[in-house]
Amino acid sequence: YPTWKRTLTRRAREAQMKRFCKAQAIQRRLEEIEVTFRELEQQGIKLEKLLRDEEGTLTNQKTQWMNQLLYLVQKKNSLMSEESDLMIAVQELKLEEQQWQLDQKLRCYMNKEEALKTPEDRAAEQEILGQLLEVVNKRNVLIHIQEEKRLSEL
């Protein structure tokens, strides 16, 4: 194996491990968000019951409960936004992995000498190139969605 092939193989493995670690971190965070959603839901239910059941409660106390309820709603909305961002990141990771795999297949065909390629090889190469372009376009759409979301939040 020439040195450059070993280097490329090592870098590909490193990139794959990075994607894997990032996917694990995203999965953990999504699970944390799910747990937090449940906790916020329980707190919200308690506050709602307090607001509905306590007829003789001071207005000051009701205002405080209402503010707490609004805070919970705000926190839940923030978590939903983060969850949405994470789901986009998951899709982006999947497309990245798909792009890497297609790129590897394409390299195999492109490394073959033109004289040795069969018509099936050429057709497969064109098909893989088309799939690769499709994946790149999907990634571009995700980036565009993220940018629009970021601008709308500003």
From TrEMBL:
Is Coiled coil among this UniProt entry's keywords? Answer: yes
Alphabetically list the UniProt keywords: Coiled coil, Membrane, Monooxygenase, Oxidoreductase
Q: Where in the cell is it found?
A: Membrane
Q: Where is the BMERB domain?
A: 13-154
Question: Which molecular function term from Gene Ontology is one that the record holds?
Answer: monooxygenase activity
Query: What protein name is recorded for this chain?
Result: MICA1 monooxygenase
Q: Which InterPro entries match?
A: bMERB_dom, F-actin_Monoox_Mical
Location (main, coarse): membrane
Q: Does the keyword Membrane apply?
A: yes
Coiled coil ranges: 23-50
Organism taxonomic ancestry? Eukaryota, Metazoa, Chordata, Craniata, Vertebrata
